Structure formats: structure tokens, C-alpha cells
Amino acid sequence: MAKEDEQSATAETCRNPRDAVDQILDQWHKERPDLDLSAMGVFGRLGQLSLLLTPALEGVFARHGLRRGEFDVLAALRRSGPPYTLIPSALAKTLMLSRAGMTNRLDRLEADGLVERRLDPTDRRSFHVALTGRGHRVVDAAVTDHAANESRLLSALTPDERETLDHALRTLLQAIE
Predict the structure, then answer these.
(1) What pLDDT shows up at residue 172?
(2) Angle between helices 68-79 and 99-111 (to 10 degrees)
(3) pLDDT surpasses 70 at 12
(4) Please, are residues 113 and 66 in contact by the beta-carbon 8 Å criterion?
(5) Which of 85, 123, 136, 146 could cross-link 130 (Cys pair, CB 3.0–4.6 Å)?
């Protein structure tokens, strides 16, 4: 029976090769066998993924002359539907930004001709942020490349694995929020 267990472990290692996080966990298991370290493995891998994914995602935005935060503003306007206009407070809330942080992004995007601020015709103290024609073209091209890049980055997972991961992450986010 021990030979079957060894073969099973070898097969599992071939399907899921050991990584740097496994080495860290092995060290901790030797030093602190009394601890359940399964969560540490999950968080270690999430941290490593974040470090690897951030430049892979930001590179796509940079090819379109954008930073991630600027892309987020343009994307929020684009997915709001015609006329692709929102008030700054709605944008800030959607992007979980302070008003000051939103103002800085809007200043850069307006200087680049990607958005424009328009006075609210019903309230001259307020204004709307609108996607320009150029902004519309830039965000459409960027989101097309972004979606393809994300699919490429997840291509190591089967559709079922993607669905399972998505479900697990949604559950975790809801629990932590």
C-alpha cells in the first residue's frame, strides 16, 4: 500500500509541481508542526500572483498611453453607456477614490484629450465628465487588448478551473468586505 501512496504523491506532484511557497511551508512545518499553514500557502500564492500580474496588466495600458487608474476612469465612463458621461462623485464612488484622487486623474485625462468636463446645464455649480471621441477609441482599443491579455494569463486553467477560482474568490471577497 505504501508503494501506491508514493505513486499517487508522484502523480500529484507532476500535475501540481512544487513552487517557492511549498518550500517556505516545508520550512515552517519543520519549525512549527503545530500550526495549520494552509492559509499561508493561499496568501503566499496570491501575493506572488499579484507581483507577477501587475506588470503584465499595466504593460497593456502603457501601450495605449495610459496608467491603470486612467484606464479605470475611461472604462467606467465607457461601460456607463451613452452618452458616456458621469458626475465626478459617481466616478469616485465607482472607483473607490477620494475626490482629490479623482481630480488628479481627470486633470491628466483632460489634458490628453480623453475626457472633457462639461457644466451641468441644470446646475451651473456642477459638472459632468464625458468621454471624448478620442477617449472612446483609446478605451475601446485598450479594453480589447486587456481582455485578450487576461485570457492569455489565465490560459493555464481549464474553463472549470476558472469558474471554480472565480467562485472561490467571489466568496472570499464577500466574506472580507
Answers:
(1) 94
(2) 90
(3) no
(4) no
(5) 85
Cell representation of residue 99: 475626490
CA distance 29 to 27: 5
pTM for the model stands at 0.81
Q: How confident is the model at residue 6 (pLDDT cuts 50, 70, 90)?
A: low
Q: Which amino acid is at 137?
A: R
DSSP structure string for the chain: -HHHHHHHHHHHHHHS---HHHHHHHHHHHH-TTS--HHHHHHHHHHHHHHHHHHHHHHHHHHTT--HHHHHHHHHHHHT-TT-EE-HHHHHHHHT--HHHHHHHHHHHHHTTSEEEEEETTEEEEEEEEE-HHHHHHHHHHHHHHHHHHHHHTTTS-HHHHHHHHHHHHHHHHHH-
> Residue 53: which of 135, 156, 144, 175 has the closest Cα?
156
Region 74-91: mean pLDDT is 94
